[in-house]
Amino acid sequence: MSETGPVHAEQTLEHLRKIGTHNAEALRAAADRLFAAVRADGLVFTAGAGHSLAGVMESYYRAGGLAAVRPLYHPDLLPLHGAVASTRTERRTGLAEEVLTGAGFRGGADALVVFSNSGVNPYPVELARLARAAGSTVVAITSPTASAEAPKRAGTTLAEEAEIVLDTLVPGGDASYPPAEPVTAPLSSMANAFLWNMLLVQMYDLAGAAGVDLPVWRSSNTVGGDEANAANLAHYGARVPGLN
């Protein structure tokens, strides 16, 4: 490892500690709203585009993850299906309504979490606007700093449309190294996963305090894992396409 490697690793860890502290109050509020949705037998819809889809993958059907998650997805948003095309798709006005309608989003008891570093393209902004209009809690995991430096292609930003904002504190452009003029080592994926895990921890504690079980997935590669997941599959399978 180069001499700068350990220094950058510590700087990255410090960034995660910083966003944990910075978002302490917002994390409590978001966890409370998401847990309320799950307890009311609603779903937590998660959404993103481009590399923010990594946050959606982290939220869906993984060991230790929340079972009451319905990922929002359109194949044209994934860079693996066309890198430049995925950017154009995120900028398409009207796609958010199409995706929400196709997913059977009900509003009300259902909640929405949107991952987007810049939060300025029509897809994440319109998702948040439509979900709030339907009476749902909307949590944005985004960087208002990055939003301020980016062109507002939707007239407003995800942070402005969301009810609760979890700030990744990621700079515009996402890169973090070298510190003076960053060009590589993007931060947003790690920040998204960290904040999502913080939400899971707080929801688990809320469930324990309420005397109920938080529906979570067990690893299917552990003894008894498949059996432990059977109840979640039976309960959510009909409402979350792809589980079965």
How would you describe this protein?
The protein has one domain: 3-Layer(aba) Sandwich (Rossmann fold). The radius of gyration is 18 Å and the shape is globular. Helix 1 (4-22) packs across helix 9 and helix 3 packs parallel to helix 9. It has 244 residues and is of the alpha/beta class. The protein has a five-stranded parallel beta sheet. Helix content is 47%, strand content 9%. Helix 6 links the parallel strand 3 (111-116) and strand 4 (138-142). It starts with a helix and ends in an 8-residue tail after the last helix.
Give a short synopsis of this structure.
The protein is of the alpha/beta class. It has a single domain (about 5-235), classed as Glucose-6-phosphate isomerase like protein, domain 1 (Rossmann fold). The chain has helices at about 5-20, 25-40, 55-60, 85-90, 95-100, 120-135, 145-150, 160, 190-210, 225-235; strands at about 45, 70, 110-115, 140, 165.
Low-confidence stretches: none
Backbone structural class = alpha/beta
Mean pLDDT: 95
The percent range for strand residues is 5-15%
Instruction: Please tell me how large the radius of gyration is.
Output: 18 Å
The CA-CA distance between the termini, in Å, is: 44 Å
Layout of SSEs?
Elements: H1 4-22, H2 24-39, E1 44-47, H3 53-59, E2 69-71, H4 83-90, H5 95-102, E3 111-116, H6 122-133, E4 138-142, H7 144-149, H8 158-161, E5 164-167, H9 188-210, H10 225-236
Parallel strand pairs: 1-2, 1-3, 3-4, 4-5
